[in-house]
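Contributing new records

If you add data, match the layout below exactly. Sequence lines come first and carry their own label; structure lines follow with theirs. Keep one chain per record. Anything else will be rejected by the validation script.
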Amino acid sequence: MENDQRCIARTLRLLVVLASYAIGGLASASPQVQPVATLDLSATHRCCGRQPGWTTVAFTSDLTIAVSLCRGGCSLSLVRWDGKALRLAAQTVTDAGAVSIYPANEGLIFSTSKRTAMALYSADLSTSQDLPPSITLVSASGKIAAEASGERWKLYRFKATTLQLAMEGAGRLQSVSDEIRVVQDGNVMNVETLDGARLGSFSVPSESGCTSFAKLIGGSWLYLNDCKLERIVNFDGQTLSQLSPPKGCCFSDDTWSVDGKRLLYDYKDRKVFQLRNAGEIIRMLVTLGMSGEEWPNREEVRVVDTSTGKSCLDSRRSFATANDVEFGRTAAISPSGEFVAIVTKRKLAIYRLPAACEDSSLASSAR
């Protein structure tokens, strides 16, 4: 009996040592990133409510962050960062929450959905005007707006607060920047300057039910999803790197740094232990699907280097109840790719990313 107890004690000590090595190894492999500045948004949000809401955060410049919050009402805020502290610069009440926010000169373009008109706000958010409902695409800088309908498209330039028609053409417009347009003609993806000079072209699958998606990133790259793979290609379709997003991830407008070298995924899903999952399935079958819990219970924010595939930041948090879930886009990357903004429990936090991506994690990722 005494020998057995000694054996058990030695085994426990060995397990403790091994665990400490494992924890230390993980810590060294995934250095934790601390926020460089935070701001409590609950005190500035003009409307109140505890029910699940909608949050959208976006950088309009490296030092300006726009935050759309909906909690029993919706507000839009502009937050300035002076390198040391975050300060509320402007705020207004909105009828709905943003799906996307784009920079526009000194102001911003506010989009609630693809079915309603985008709004152009002034720099202090004091005035706004609706853009034509036909506008569906905006360049990353907010200087070019696009109208795309079926196999026809039109491009407009912003002149102060008005739109001036710049050009139009045939094909399915995929993406546009201040200098380049991407138009799909049949199963050929054409990359051209706004004046029509050819920069490259390549074929994409023409399988039934497959719709390829291409987006300009950086000055000479494309993000391409052809229903089989997600990857970075040049203008002739040659693969530069392959992406591995989380299963089921993400929005089609995942945010990129201006140079295209860093990509941010913001992904929510539901994951439960097998026993609980079996219980949920049985309960749904018994009640004909009326009692199943479908709200997401975890979120992952990840920034990856598109050339190496390594992670610059990996943030994971869980939601205890449906009321804790923050829907929408709660994270954004700055144009330079140096900073990330994350909204958690109505608190805005800014993180400085490491110069080289080596699988870094957030210190306060759990909740």
